[in-house]
Request: fold
Amino acid sequence: MTFAQFKHSLCALAFGAGSLLAQPAETPQTTVQTKTYDQDGRKVTERTLTTVVKETAPKPEATTVAIFVANRAGTVGDSELGALEDYITGRVTDLNVQVISGETALNAVAGMEPGAKANELDAQMAQSTSAVRLAQTLGATHLLQVTLTGFESNKRKVDAYGVKATNEERTARVTYKILDGVTGASLASDTVRVSKTVQQTDSSSEELSGVLNGLLEEAAQKVAVSLKRQIDRGRLASTSAAQGTVTFTLTTELADVYIPDVRIGAENTISISDSKYKVSALAATVEIDGIAVGTAPGQIQAKAGLHKLRVVREGFKPWERTVNLSNGQKLNVPLEMTDAGYARWQDATRFINDLKNGAKLTDAEVKVLEGQAKMFEQSGFKVDTKEGIQITNKSLF
Reply:
């Protein structure tokens, strides 16, 4: 094998299996070391080829977490919660984790659940639906819940060498939990414990708040170490937050409201059959998680998964449901009229109620009647004439 062939083989080995190696950052550099010596009266030349390939691994995508900090240690830790959040945020940001502030996250919770308070956080996030909706609203792939679970003090009196003192061991416990931003499932959790012994004498003492603040800073460091261990194990990679956009179809209909099948015969004779047509309301506003995204009937795009869906239209009561959206899904929303809306409905359909079965109309009266039917549809209602009814003569609609 010639030197050129050998060099080509090395390159093929390095780049032929492109899926196994990272993309080279630059052209491979090959060096040749030559050694010549005599062996058994013959001249021998050894060539050692060294090829250096610099590879650049793709930069991992940042994990985006919405952070919540809660206190279960009593009022002793309330004033330090902001500091704990800052300590945690500073530490985990170095792990390629982007953090959405607690204030932003809590505002989102309050928007989803009016009246929700920070101390009700655990109850809110215990519901996977709430967790998923919150993550999708904030654009977070994960939720990070941090709780100051305990702050304890153990005292031991010391009397030695004529000095009376009290050794007090203060211990803080901090628990964190990572939730999947799509399923709401818990992916990883851990509790860290930090302690400090403080000696109190008649002439010296240390403020409780200062000790707790130092313990929380140390706890944040341990939380970051634990979280990195979970990331290295792939525990956070199970999130399905890379969900795509789905398209679903939403239609509306009036609940328990129908239009009679009115037909006009060849001699302009009115025929009112027992068949009924469904009526749908047009131009209803569709909201997903509190944000208007389109109108119904029609096709709507949104992220897959759980959402709070709301349909509103003037003259109708708002319709709200929590739905699990998927691609190609079809939803039919029954809208119920308000009293004022029903009064307007009666005015809009009065021309039908005044018709008499078997009555004969002039050509001019038929034109007026057709015009009234067209005005009815233009007022925001659509009559569904595709319910399997065979139309053998001219339908008013």
Notes: The chain has nine helices and 20 strands. Residues 3-56 form one domain. The chain has three domains: 3-56, 63-238, 246-395.
